[in-house]
Design goal:
WH_DNA-bd_sf (chains A, B), ArsR-like_HTH (chains A, B), ArsR family transcriptional regulator (chains A, B), HTH_ArsR_DNA-bd_dom (chains A, B), homodimer, DNA-binding transcription factor activity (chains A, B), alpha+beta, DNA-binding, Arc Repressor Mutant, subunit A
Chain lengths: 111, 111
Amino acid sequence: MSAAEKYDVFQAIADPTRREVLHLLATKERSIAEITTHFDMSRTAIAKHLHVLADAELVSGTKVGREKIYMLQPEPLTELKQWLAFYEQFWNNKLTKLKYVVEKEMMTDTE
Amino acid sequence: MSAAEKYDVFQAIADPTRREVLHLLATKERSIAEITTHFDMSRTAIAKHLHVLADAELVSGTKVGREKIYMLQPEPLTELKQWLAFYEQFWNNKLTKLKYVVEKEMMTDTE
DNA sequence: TTGACATGAAACCAAATGGTTGTATATAAT
DNA sequence: ATTATATACAACCATTTGGTTTCATGTCAA
């Protein structure tokens, strides 16, 4: 069961419906039908979204009887976290500069 | 100059070219032409990507002479960070379990 | 002022995306 | 055995996306 790797994490989370699905699966495992009840679209559409998420390995599904139960697999989000970490230094710099300015102002104001 | 808000951060970073553009702008401000030299596509295509990024407020451009200089605006990434933070608790749980196992092994190994 | 340069904007296009409906198959319940 | 349920899969469709080419405009340099 290798990943076709057609979709990566970035693409997978780009769609708001898929983010909502992830959020639902964060609470607990759910069947396709159960997930569908939370949306205003067909079961097939949701199944497709789940395939995209599974392709990005953000969820995994196992067949239980006639149901397919999907569960969250958050590991691939580490890639996103690492990507973000690189940019954090930039907005942290801004905050640092701001903090410096504020503190300087406080000193000149109060003394 | 309000945001048309057609694109959000999630969509903006979904495209690998746009992520590369962001990475380039992290180093320094650059003109459209300069950015284009790093890619194998037309200047117009890059300009479109920059519009998407600008729409998501991840970059801003100012005209200087006949050039348009774009710079990184990392602030909207905080939204992404917050989104991620929610899911971190899940994979942290897994890591915590792993850490526990490792430490337990170390103790039994070294003492 | 004339030409080269940098961009803007419009028209166009193929492929991908996000949805639908319809049909088939496997499992559960009566 | 029959019916209802849960899903799979294929075909189809409209819109969006990511790219192109072409033409117009503004600015810099000679």
